[in-house]
Amino acid sequence: MVNRTPGRSFLILTAALLCAGSLCAARAQTQGEPAPTAPPAAAPSVMPAAPTTPGLAPAVTAAGPDICTQTPTFVDTTVNGEGRGGTLAFLAGGEIWVSPGVLRPTEARYIAQTVTCETGDFVRLQPSLSVVFDANELTLDIRPELALLPGGVLDLGTDASQTAPVGAVLPVFSVGVRGDLRRSVLTTAGAIGNTLTHNAALRLDYQNARVQTYGQISEGGVVSSLVADQAPSRGLEAGPQRFGAEAAALYDLSTVLSVGVVAYADQGVPQTGTTLDTTTASPWGVSTQRVSGLTFTAGSTRAYRLPQLVVPLPLDSDVSIVVNGSSLRRVRVPAGNLTLRNIPLSSPAGTVEVSILDATGTRTQRFGYTSADVAVAARSLAAQGQLGVQGRTAPGTSGLMPAAALTGVYGIDERWSVAGEVLASSEQQRAQASVRYTDPVLNTGLSVRYDSRLRSPVVLAGDATYTRPDWRVGVVAAVAPADLRTSLVRAQVSLIRPRFVTTLGLQAAPGTGDYGAGLSGTGRLTDRLNLGGEGAVTTNRAGELGWRLGVSLNWTPWEKVTVLVGSAVTQAGQGAPEAVTAAQVSYQPTPAHTFSALVTTQPDQPAVGTLRYDYNQNVLASVSASTTGDFSVAGAATAAWVAGRVYLTQDQLGHGVLIRTGVPRLPLIVNGQHVMADARGDALVMVGTAARTVNLTPDFERIPFTVSVVEDNREVALAAHGVVTVDWISNFTQNMWVRLVRPDGAPIRYGRLDLPGNPATDDDGWSLIPRQVAPVTVQVQPEEEGAAPCRVTVQAGQETYRCEPLP
Fold it and tell me: How would you classify the pairing of strands 336-344 and 153-155?
């Protein structure tokens, strides 16, 4: 189809067709058509009390410009990476006014001013916010500004009871694979060492509304070689190797009680390394780390939440939160200290992984948690237990031993929770009791732990984080009364301002003689330019002093391009200082594709260049290569069979949602993840077991102009197992371009078609009408006075039609 510019009358009538009750109403205005005259508006008035949304109050209460006399624009909003739906907005004079209903109480400081117009209440956003407005697609993306959030907080808690009811639940069978292969080359005087690190896993899973079964096998290890000039070269040698397998079958007796069986097995190779042609691997056996046997859960396993987690971000980053192997959310946030609050969990103990993608590449920070760190809803009890066997680990022993584990968390009220944990076997007895208090300002907990395997079996631990709008203080301490030298204390103080964040950290470990202090900060010079710096001093057991200084500059010249330049100098102990300088350019043409190039230099060494590509859509894949010979390849994907069809989706361990749109290749955003429907118009998204809900939003930046949308956002509650079906076909209308001409070939100007919405042609005969799969005969009434009506048969796949006179 060739490009064409619609006429004025065509645009007005097209708007009537596409926008009656739909979201593309305001889009016709972006094509150059003047907005309709607004009704007389009342003079703006400052709200004397709290705005409509509870908990939100204007940050500045001063009379603003007469925005109420202007014409608002309907936009689709995203705030802090979460779709908030459509709203009216005023966009003029560099100021942005939106309805307060799109903001949460924790985002009150995003508001600079509040006024009341005849069309409702509006708030002016702070000028320091990073806001991206797409005039073509009418989307408004309000990026997180940690300095304006209470302590830089993103609240991930969701009340599933307020979401749409669960739809039809379908069984799903899936096969998931993931793996990575990395080569590292180390060159020293007269020798070159090569190391290959490999990991892979295969998982089979079946689940329906009440049953979940799965099996998984995995492997990981290291293979190395050495080529030397003056000594015999070593061939391939196997380093640490590991093989594992697990299987489970779980059944929900009710919504609050489930039972099942689980089994874990593994095999290892001695850590000293053996050549590949030997067979010294230890035999397969029951896992020594986890209990295999019967398992049960009582209460709501979806009630667990981690009250708070602080993640330092030296640069603007794409942050992905993964809980026990299941992805939770992905969000774009600026540099600073990110505080994640109310993280939903699937179990009372496990790991939260925060994957950070910034201009320096991708890295993952792992945070382990136990029942002492977990809270639940008020007057809720959540418990899990296992009864079975473990592999023996004591020297000179083998075989199995009985083992049992029990964990429980109870919410006394909205702020206080208590927890207990017990593990018992013939080789180890472990117990823990804890209490935790959490509110929007203070998160603190105290626990006592006993572990018979430790030299000092009793450990007292405590933590506290106090958060205010402009600063935050955190302390973590662990003390063993029987050996105070093994104690550990960490403290952190952060100062948060709209344009900069500064953090001071202190650490003391008397037992190992490790002490340290560090100061870091990031400043936003402009909306596209950030400056960061850091300094740290440490000492070790020998009393040797170490230090580090670094500086970085992060520049975003265009929306899809990021440039980073950084330099650091480090000295450890008595060694000479080492300096490194790096420059990287990243280009992200679409959310699914990211290209980056990195150059690193060090004194007296050749520069090293690295190229990297990341793909993130229905599958995950990445590849990188450098001039040193290093390379890496990684990927993950799952093929899922649902309702007789196979779907390709990202590798996840939990339940999912099947979205039926009826529009082939329709782009969507599900929980912040960009998803593309298949040729049938269906999209399957598997999410982590900790997720309670999913948020569905059309990807307005990529939806074709020929598709109109009715509902811009939907929150869907998930089932505990299986796939929830969302029938969204009625939400989307496909349209098609047609050109109507007379029998002599002249265009029919401003002719009205007898179709829903009464579409009309423009001055060149073009019109946008609902897509017709089967042939449909339509009557056309030309605009000219006295012109006789004609009829035409339209069908998808053809553009130009000759309108024949009526018989």
Answer: parallel
Closest by CA to 220, choosing from 193, 194, 238, is: 238
pLDDT of residue 25: 30
The amino acid that residue 325 corresponds to is G
The DSSP string of 758-799 is --B--TTSEEEEE--SS-EEEEEE-SSTTPPPEEEEE-TT--
CA 340 to chain centre: 12
The 10s digit of each residue's pLDDT in 491-519 is: 999 887 777 889 999 999 887 778 999 99
Res. 61: pLDDT tops 70: no
Strand arrangement, sheet containing 682-686: 169-170, 723-727, 656-660, 682-686
d(CA 102, CA 79) in angstroms, rounded, equals 8
Region of 273 (left: φ > 0; alpha: ψ -120 to 50; beta: rest) is left
Give the confidence band of 215 by pLDDT, cuts at 50, 70, 90: very high
Residue written as tokens 């060159």? 187
Residue 16 is predicted with a pLDDT of 33
Strands (E), 143-256: 153-155, 169-170, 172-188, 191-207, 211-228, 234-254
- pLDDT of 289 strictly over 80: yes
Architecture of domain 733-805: Sandwich (2.60)
What are the residue ranges spanned by the domains of the chain? 8-162, 733-805
CA distance 409 to 374: 8
Per-residue H/E/C for 582-636:
EEEEEEEEECCEEEEEEEEEECCEEEEEEEEEEEECCCEEEEEEECCCCEEEEEE
d(CA 764, CA 782): 13
pLDDT level of residue 300 (50, 70, 90 thresholds): low
Greatest mean pLDDT range, 164-168, 308-312, 436-440: 436-440
Is pLDDT above 50 for 551?
A: yes
CA 608 to centroid of chain Cα atoms: 31
- How would DSSP label each residue in 84-99? EEEEEEEEETTEEEE-
**Rounded distance, CA 481 to CA 485, Å?**
9
* Dihedral angle of Cα 339, 344, 349, 351, to the nearest 10 degrees: -50
Q: What is the DSSP letter of 371?
A: G
